[in-house]
Amino acid sequence: xxxxxxxxxxxxVLGLFGxxxxxxxxxxxxxxxxxxxGTVPAGTVAIRLRFNSxxxxxxxxxxxxxxxxxxxxxxxxxxxxxxxxxxxTIMASGGMQLHWQVLAxxxxxxxxxxxxxxxxx
Length: 121
Ligand SMILES: [Cu+2]
What we know:
Blueprint: H1 2-25, E1 29-33, E2 39-41, E3 43-51, E4 61-65, E5 72-73, E6 77-78, E7 84-91, E8 94-103, E9 109-119
Bound molecules: copper (II) ion.
Copper (II) ion is lined by residues 22, 25-26, 104, 106, 108.
């Protein structure tokens, strides 16, 4: 009975490691500009997204999604450190989204959406 309990507990611990270890290796968005639910002045905006790990810029994507317009795939470039993704684009006013997709050095792809608002200046 006790051995059974210990075995189950051991498997549970293994299970937790199995779930948490790969998750820490994936690229997770830490912060950036535009910030989620933030605002940017309409016009040319320097986008910068920071992740928790090195990212492979050549195999990552950033797309600007504006309601009523075609999706715009942005030209991305590495930032000063390997955990940064940068791009410049011209923002309209109104609500829009950045869709990011990133390949981390562990070979896993993560993606997410940042919703924000362009404010006319
Ligand atoms: Cu991973």
